Every structure is written in C-alpha cells, then in structure tokens.
Model the fold of this input.
Amino acid sequence: MHTNNDNLLELQDLKVSFFTKQGEVKAVDGVSFSVGKEEIVGLVGESGCGKSVTSLSIMRLVPQPAGKIVSGRILFKNEDLMTKSEDQMRQLRGDRISMILQDPMVAMNQLLTVGEQLGEPFRFHDKVKGSLRDMCIALLGKVKVPAPESRVDDYPFQFSGGMSQRALIAMGIANNPDLLIADEPTTALDVSIAAQVLKLMKEIQKETRSSIILITHDLATVAQICTRVLVMYAGRIVENATIKNFYKKPAHPYSKGLIQSVPVLGRPVERLFSIDGQPPSLFEMPEGCRFSPRCSRAEKICFESYPPEIMLEDNHSVACWLYAGN
Amino acid sequence: MQGYILKRILIAMFTIFAVLTVVFFIFRLGPADPVAVMLPPNATPQDAENLTKKFGLDQPLMVQYTNYLKNAFKGDFGTSFRFNEPALKVLFERFPATLQLGLVAFVISVLVGLSVGIISAVKPDSFIDRIGRLVALAGMSLPSFWVGVMLILFFGVTLRWLPIAGKGTLAHYIMPSFCMSLYPIALITRLSRSSMLDALKSDYVVMARIKGVPEFYVILVHAFKNASIPVLTVIFGIFSGLIVGSAVVVEYIFSWPGIGRLVMESYFARDYPVVQVFVIFVTFVVVTMNLIVDIIYAYIDPRIRYQ
Amino acid sequence: MIHLFKKKKKKDTRPKGGIRLPYVGFFCLGIFFLAVIFADVIAPYDPQEGDLFSSTIPPVWQEEGSLAHILGTDMLGRDVLSRIIHGSRMSLLISVGCILFYGSIGVTLGLISGFMGGRTDMVIMRMADLWLSLPAIIVLFMLASVHGPSAKTIILTFGIMGWPNYARIVRGECLSLKERDFVRLARVAGCSKLRIMFSHILPNIMNTIIIMATIEIGGIIVLTASMSFLGLGTQPPSCDWGLMLAEGRQYITYASWLVTFPGLAIVITVLGFNLTGDWLREILDPKQKLR
Done:
C-alpha cells in the first residue's frame, strides 16, 4: 500500500485483539483506510463491529490490560504512531488528535466542575495564555452553551444532556485538533438536540479545518455531514465509498441492506426491510466472508475465503466476491 | 449544604439518644438484678440496700430513666466502684493510650492499604498486586488475637527482641500496632483495589486520557476522587472499629493501658458504671466518625452538596 | 491423522504463576467438615477427660513428646488434638447459629424494605444505620454483664446485631426484581404481598444469600473465637478454639503448642471459608454486586 502525502491519517492492516478468559477476540481484524485533510468520514456499522475499538486504537487507548494492538501501522501525518513513546502519544492526544465520547453523562467526571475538565487540554499541553478560566468560558461560548461565565463553574450534573454533549465537544476541539474522532456523539440525545449538535460540529469543522471521523450506526447522520462512508462489519471494512456513490449505488450486500432498512419520508413502505440473522459472535468467526451466513447472494467461495478489496471506481472499493469477476 | 449537615447532625443526635435508651433498658430489664450483678461477692444486705438507694433503683422505671438521661446530659455516668471516681473521668484517663495506639495503627493501615490497593488496580497481576492479594487474604483469615499471641511467643518469648507488655518506648508499639492494622490493611487494600478498578474502567478516565492528561493525574485526581467515596466509609469505620473492637482484644493481649483493657478489667471486676460509660463513649465516637464521613462526602461529591 | 486427536488449545489467560486458590480452600474445608462429622471417630481421646499425671506433654516431634498425644496435652492432661477436633463442632455451631439468626432477620427485613418501599423502607433503613453505630462487641459486653457469658449470649448478640448488611443487599436485589415481569404477573394474578415476597422473590435471591453467608462465616468464626478468647463467650470446660487459646496463653513460655494449634485450626477453617466464598462469588456473581 502506497503512502499518500495528502492523507492526514492512514491505517494499514490494523489488528486489535482482546485476550479474555474465553480466548482471543479479534475485535478489529485487518482494517485499512485513510482520512484526507478536512475530510468528514463516516464509520458505520452495527454495535460491536469494532468501530469504537478502531477509533480508540488510533489514539492508542485500547482498554488495558485485555486489549492489545496486535499488528498494523497507524500513520498520522506520515508518522507511525505505533513507534511513538507513551509520552509522545500523550502530547498528541487532546492536542493534534482528539475524540468525543458517546454518553456525556458518564464521559464527564461528576466530581469536577465543567471548567476544570475543559481546562485540562490547555493545561497539559502548555497552551494556557492569560486566564485559564477565560479560555474555558470562550470555549463554552464557541459550542453555544448559554451564559458560559456562570456555567463554567457548574458541575456536570447541573448540565442538561445536550449541554453536556456540547461541553464534551468543547473538550475535544479545545486545541483545534487536526483529527477529531466523534464516537456516536448524538446517540444519547433527543432528535432535535442531535440535529443542533451536528450542525454545530459542521460549523466548527469549517472553522478549524479539522478532519473528522464520525462513528455512528445512524445513516441519516452520515447523510447530513459526511463526505465519505466506511462500512464496517465484524471487525473489517466491507465498503469504502463517497457519500453519493454509497447512497446511489451501494455495492456490498450489507450496505444495501443498511440503506434499505432506513425508512424514507414520503415513500410508503409496506414492511421495513431488515437483514436476517445476527452478526457473528466474535469468538466464532465464519471462515470466509463474515457476512456470508446472512447474505442472500452468498456463493460457495463466500464461505471459504475472505474476499479481497476490489476497486470499483476511483473512490469506491468493496470487499465482496460478487465483484471479483470484473 | 447547611440543610444536609444539619440533617446529619440531627440524625447523629437521635442515634446517641437511642443508644442511651437501649443501654438503659438492657441493663435495667435484664433477668439479673443489677444490684446483685454490681455487688462484690462478699457484700452484706446493707450494702445492697445502700446501692439500691444510691442509684435510685427503688424509684419507678420512668423516673430512673429521666434521671439517667438528665445525668448523662451533664456528663455524669455514675461512679466507678473500683476507683471511687466518676466513671467518665476514669475512662478519659485511659483514653489517650488507646488513641495513640489507634492512630499509629490507623495511619499504618491507611498508608499501606491505600497504596497497595491503588498500585494493584493500576497494574493488575503485577508483583505488587499478587502480594496485595495475598496480604488481603491473610488479613481476612488470620485472627488478630492469635497473631498477637504468636508475635509474643516469637519476638517476645523466644527471640526476646520486643517487649511483650505495657507501654513506654517506641518498641512497645511495634507488635500491638502490627496486630491491630492487619485486618484493616486487608479491608482497605481489597476495597480500594476494586473501587479503583471500577473507576479506571469508566468513560471519564478514558476521556481524560483522550485530552492528554498525564497518567498520574488521571489516577490520582480523576479515578481516585471517585474511588474514594466507598473507601472513605470503610476507612472511618475502621478508625472507630480500631478504637473499639481491636482495642479491646489487642490491649488485652499486650496489657496496653488503654480503655479496651480498662473495660475488660471493669467487666471482670463487675465495675458496671465503667462498662456502661465505655459503651456510651464508644457509640459517641462511632456516631461522630459517621458524621465526619457524611460531611466529607458533601465536600467531595457536588451532587450531595447542591441537593 | 494425529491432528484429529489434538484438542483445540485455548489460550490460558490466567495470571502467570497464580496458585489455584479455590482448591486450597476446598481442601481446608474438607479437613474441617471431616472433623465436624467424624469427631467421635477420629479423636483419639475424650476431649474433656484429662489425666493430671500426663499434664503438659509436648507434641510428638519435641524431645519429651510421645506418640500417644500427637499434639501434646494441656495443663489438665487433656489431649490437644482431640480437643481441637471436637472444637470444630463448637465453632460451626456458633457461627452457623449466628448466620441463621441474623440472616433470617436481615432477609426478612430486606424483603419487606425493598418490596414495600416508601415509609416502611425508610424506617427499616434508618434502623439499619442506627444498628451499625452500635458495635457488636459493646452489645456483647452489656448482654454478658446481664446474662452471663456463654455460647448462647454470643449467638444472641451477633444474631441481633448482624442483620443490616444482609438487609441492605437483599433490599437492593429485591428492588431490581420487583420490576421484573414475573413479579408483575404474580401481582396481576392477585398473589398476596407475602406470597410474592417469599415464594417469588426469595427463591431468586437465594444465590446471593448463600454467597453472602459463605463469605461472612469466616469473619464470624474469627469474631466469636476472639470473644471466647476474651472470656466473653463459651466458658470452661467446653472445647472452643478461642477458649483453648485463652487457657493456653498463661503457659505460653513453656507450652507454646497450647496456643499454636488451636490458632492454626481457626486459620485453616477461616481460610477454607474465605477462599470458597471468593470462588463462589466469582462463578455465581460475575457482576460483583457483593463485595
């Protein structure tokens, strides 16, 4: 795989496993993709397919001691993060690479004020200019929390869900990171508030020119702000497409299923489409294509070996035997 | 905040009142005649009568009860037969010795227990973690009175390295404080390890790491602050427990001149007012400790402070 | 064809060098229950009968020891081994007595508290707080002063004082079970509250109750033994490990076996219960509600 200098981040054959009492769980099994500068990439898949683990690996924060990055390269600005020391990683985290977690209620420390937690990215990266408190207030204002001067001294439990999520976003963007990973930032929120938060994220992205990896299982969210989609299934990327291609001509049967299972406003449906079966247990992966047991178009070869990555167009690749003949 | 503390103080006062009442009725309504229990074996009927009058035992129960409460409020808990002095004064003379030993054992248990517990949680399955688990198991399974006796046998009788009884030099503290801190160390290690493990797994710790917060700050500020809530209850419970339970056993074994030994002597000498004042005093200590814990909670946890 | 017989190897993820501790626990408990059940058969002598001519004989491996008394004899010439074996019964009797006593109070109050909720719940939980402010040893001092020290007094004291822990755990379990469908269905079906509590909820928390009992029994054995050691519990001439230690303590300078072996007996028993309790908790309570 060649190294593209335009890419901000490039994962090459990343493998992450958890070593449990029941045996090894290959949560991420050979994932490769890249994220360009100022790009917003959606990482889509069912829960447990390895989306969150992938993103934590980029920060080298896989849960210890069970989890381990087994192999692969993580190139960030053409430097391999796997070769960095723990302290070098710490300096990158919260500064050049940052992340927003899913549930603001548990992602904030309930015993520290919002201001104390907001100030940490500044304090620990020597970015404090003037008053730290003023910086935190400005940051809260940036994410449109009303009355930031008084809110900065509040505790997380005094914030509403939407406001907590905004505060969490503020922590992520504090130092204008080059890469922001947002792990289901709207799942814990009401629909109307979720829309506001997404709008805010898009605005911020425009302003800071960061790249964003948006992790979600909600295709509607992806359609709203992403430029490219990565579909993940059982620890692997099965399709990589621009947003247009993905919605107009999805290639992988799993992607097709995902799109069909979303109800579309104004188009009457008798019965909502659903993909049969369950995602495979991580302990017992099928030999061939992981999706083969649920795939209606599976052939003999699908059960025997894993399909290679096939380029359909310039910006559209898929891992499926259906396209191997071309 | 003030409302919360006021409520806790009221509960504490009610608890002390309830215990005073329970103590009164257990002693008065028991099957044994309190006078007979209190009197030395060679007492004459005249002595019995005097004693009955002296304690107002000839009066109706409710009158006795109100008098008892009134006196208790004034700090009068009767007179020790053995010393012929106010029971409370006798107790207070012996209390510093217990407090000194208790504090030493307390500091040892908290220092050792917390540090081993935290290190074990930060580095599971490391050498310290394994040692910690072994110590926790030993502390839970070794009866302190037997450990005390064995220490005396080994270091006192056989090797003659350490004094086996009394209080005086620093060397006198070694065996009793070790003996006293064994169980608390086990308890604190176990609890701080599991609370820290829980805290370190939580999302706010991951979030702190994402922000690039250095690991020592993640552990000591983010994780430990949250883990300290359950640990604190146990630590303060241990402090009162040390002053009560362990003090009696350890002071008895090592002839330590504190209140634990006093109450044993008084019990065997049937010096009943001293036993009674010990009971009440200990409850007072326990209730005060609980009150302090509640107030500390309010300082740590904003959700309590602002409720 | 050889590979057919090879078993699929699973990666062993146990901490390296860890001892298989539960087995140590089972072994200790095995010895303890053998002693309890077959005390009359195994014990070489009557535990109460002493021969003053054979007083303070040291254990067999010391110079003056004799095979007749493997662990030696005490001041009254009673065989130490026989007394320790018989002592296991006293230890079990007292500790199980305490647990049954306060366990039943705690489970009942916990069920009522969790199921009824509201004011009843508040009163019971406040009572639990109050109870916890009064250390058991203090109550023992009072009860022993009034009733005289005995095994009964010990069981009574810890029986009355031990329930709050049980009540809290049971209450917590009850609160979560209360909202489950089978309990709601029972309510719709018109079962009485008493019936729901005892025949629908109770069987579902039996596991928790048994784990708790196993975990706590070791501590109770230590506590009750130390009370007997202080002279607040069983009285001579009964065979109780704590009491044997107390009696032997006076002769510690020349008959150390009188304090060593009863103590070891306690340690083995308590270790057995603690390790088994931890093991039970690990396999039956993966969510670690009990700590």
About this structure: The mean pLDDT of chain A is 86. Chain A has twelve helices and twelve strands.
